[in-house]
Task: structure prediction
Amino acid sequence: MDTKINQKNKKYKRLGIIAVTTIILGGSSFYLMNRPRTLTVSANELMIKDVSEDYFEDFVVFQAQIEPINSIFINVIEGGSVQEIFVENGEKVTKGLPIARLYNPNTELNFLTQETAIIEQMNQLNVAKLSIRNQELDLSKDFVGIEHDFNQSKLDYELNQKLYDREVLAKNEWENTKEKMRYQQERKAIIQKSLVKERESNSIQLKQINEALAIMQKSLVTLRKNKQNFLVLAPETGRLSSFEATLGQSIEAGKSIGKVDILSGYKLVAMVDEYYLDRIQENQYG
Result:
């Protein structure tokens, strides 16, 4: 036969367990909050000194590399393939000493085309300049002939005027003489004015042609100078370093193929971890 369980006794038992647990936790918390906060140290482990102001030294160790104080990079102006090498890495070089020679057939052909075009333009300007001078010379020759005719008409005019005043020369011949004199005088004035304007115009044109020729001459000199950029020269006197060019190697324009170290002194170069950055200052000795 089943036995009936009394639910009331079970309820009292659960409340008792909760009460005991609460008492234990409260007591533990009270003990931890009020326990003495002390540390026991042996007297032999203590060292007592007076506090004083003194110089504090802090050391940070780095690994550094020795490098020259100044170095100049050797940059390639005109790209191409390495055709010749004149010095080796580590050798001492002087300023302007050839280091290597590059070659680029496309750039070389472009230089020749530009040079030919500039020379042709200069020849055309020189021909135009010679033509202007020839025109001015021809006009001057014409003016000399006209001036001769004018002087001859003037002599005839003065002579015929005397003859007419003495009533030796007929009136119609005198009128003809005056007409020739007027014609030659106006002709000379027109040609003389034209010659003055022609010379002014020619002077302006010659000045412009000379300026254009001077600019083209500079361009030609610069172009021929740029052709020398295939020859790589040492930018300064020192020791060649980081030079690893090989024959046949293709090098782009503007790329550095080495550097020249100036042997006036040396410096230490170290990689500093960011942890030490706040402990390093400018002009700090090391």
Residues 105-165 form the longest helix (61 residues). Residues 105-228 form one domain. The chain is about 50% helix and 15% strand. The beta strands are 64-75, 80-85, 92-93, 98-103, 231-233, 238-241, 250-251, 256-270.
